[in-house]
Amino acid sequence: MSTKHGEVSQTGVARVEVGSEVTAVRSNRVVLDNTICPAEIIICNGKIADILPKRSRAHASGEKVLDVGDLVVMPGIIDPHVHTCEPGHTALEGYSSATKAAAAGGVTTLVAMPLSCLSPTTTLANFEDKLQSAEGQCHVDVAFWGKVVPGNQDELLSMLQAGVPGFKCSLIASGVEEFPHVSLQDLHMAMNELQGTDCVLLFHAEQELGQWKPALEDPTEYRALLDSRPDAMEVEAIQTIADLCLQYKMPCHILHLSSAQALPIIRKARQKGAPLTIETAHHYLTLTSERIPPGGTYYKCCPPIRAKTNQEQLWSALQEGLIDMVVSAHNPSSPDLKLLADGDFFKAQGGIASLQFGLPLFWTSAKAKGFSLHDVVQLMCKNPASLIRLDDRKGALCPGMDADLVIWDPDKEFEVKKNMIQHKNQLTPYLGFQLCGEVLATLVHGRLVYLKGKFSPKLEGVLLVTQRKMSTRVSSSPYY
């Protein structure tokens, strides 16, 4: 049974409704490790059982088979940087709304940041509270980061053993009382405690510049915010992190890299053997400071969106392999917290919501720059899976892996409209954008959780908290 480009058909006696457990997916364009080819993915008990040449077997009556024609079938997107805001700040976001947006965007696994919730994930007890709040609410799989704050080093190993793959820390005040920034001494204590584990430390990489003070400017002009968070803040922080990474030979990860001026430090540290990985975010690759209007506080994030010339250098670093992954850094905010009426960039809450649109945001620009579908898989599936220590089950299409799939049309253009947004707060700078790459269906563990605007009524996303290995892991290069 053939299908037209952009359509999903269903074969077999049993109709495949959203929420169904699918037994096979057929496509003329399946993205495997070394090729894109016609294939049939056989699914059993939530895992990929086999991958066969398309139509090489007869189907038993009642099997639930999706034949998607020329639509692309890829591993599900893994987004390791999402602020879910629950428990404590569910007016901003929650597990149900965040994972629903993820499913609509082809994201099959997200990792919840330890910030933007009450209580923050700084102790084992708080981590257990967070797990309880997420239970039964998730459309897709969810993992969890812990965090390092001054004085919690005795909690880190217990959280690692309970299932967090690593810990976030910040070298600059976050503006959130529950998440104080760490000193160099705090980092030495934490890294001594965690050395010899398979843990990764994540860094919000900005650092205060001593006695430096920005010039007083109009707070409704974006240039004022940009001048208050200069490139040097990222450069100083990343130099500190690179030195620590080399000293301890402990995996370290730079969150939401904004400044291309830090790239030479990263390159040099890696050449010396630092196990250092880097992410950048969709807003740094899509938006530029020159196009942010006065009072446009819905563009505010930290580190800030920088100039077009900086953006082009980030794209070059992606092509070079110096930046390892692209994430949403989804951090939603309500219109009142963004102070839209005042337009004050300094007082407005930071953060950009984009979880649902990561794949088309990246692809719209990337395809014009010569990136391939295999590049998309590397940057948004494989490398994030390695970061969160789940590359033995996620991030690729091969037998034995979780049957997490995104089915999408990379050629279909659409406009971002408010009524399609599944995030709890629909404020985003991407409203009205024309993007390329429409997600038609998402499967998690072989279950059809999203199909053409409809969602599974069963919320069966798994909370990914496997016990960590505590044996020594020595790495001399990025760890994927």
The radius of gyration over CA amounts to: 22 Å
Measure the end-to-end span: 39 Å
The DSSP helix count reads 11
For the biggest sheet, the summary is: 10 strands, mixed
**Element pattern in H and E:** EEEEEEEHEHEEHEHEHHEHEHHEHHEEEE
- How much is the average pLDDT? 92
Tell me, what's the shape?
Answer: globular
| Helical coverage, percent range | 10-25%
Strand content: 15-25%
Number of β-strand runs: 19
Low-confidence stretches: 471-480
SS-based class: alpha/beta
Write up this protein.
It is a single chain. Strands 1, 2, 3, 4, 5, 6, 16, 17, 18 and 19 form a ten-stranded mixed beta sheet that branches. By secondary structure, the protein is α/β, with parallel strands linked by helices. Helix 3 packs across helix 4 (184-194). Strand 13 (252-254), helix 7 and strand 14 form a beta-alpha-beta unit. The chain has eleven helices and 19 strands.
Features:
single chain; 480 residues; alpha/beta; 10-stranded mixed sheet; 6-stranded parallel sheet; 19 strands; 25% helix; disordered C terminus
